[in-house]
Amino acid sequence: MEEAPITSDMIEVLSRLFRYMISQKNAKTTIRQEISILYDYIKIQEYRMNQHMILLQNIENESQVMEYSIPKLIIQPLVENCIKHGNKNISREFIITLNIYAAQSRLIISVKDNGCGMTPKTLNEINRRLADNDWNSMQARKKDKLRGNGIALTNINSRIRLLYGDIYGLTAYSTLGRGSEFQITLPFYNQE
Question: What pTM does this model have?
Fold first, then answer.
């Protein structure tokens, strides 16, 4: 009645996101479903920030990989992290690249941006926390100056390690001024 197509579209996208996030049926989902939610999430951020963002995806062995079961909400928070931290003070078009491929018995999920990147000190701190995987230090860190930086990363890493073991998880890479990459390593079993 109001002829408000943007508002209508936003409500539809938000409802899909909420349904996906609060669904308690499974702690796992398929890569296809996780990628579908990424497009909805990016659409909301584009409306919110009034900025176009590009999501490129490169998925090797798509027929095998797209239906592969992974923990729910391990890719979307990485994209959120890229937008929140990588999209600061850049004048170029913001591009997020999702690469997924199987390497022997491992599945690699990489989320990369062309944003502002991190200082070596910040990158080392994030990777140290991921390697330590210490929940208590994460809770204590909430009070320090890095508050809100890396909690989602530690959460993703902890869930992966609880499910699959300490040899799997999340690693960060970054070059200041050129962007960051977050790489998830999971076990890959041929499901055919």
Answer: 0.82
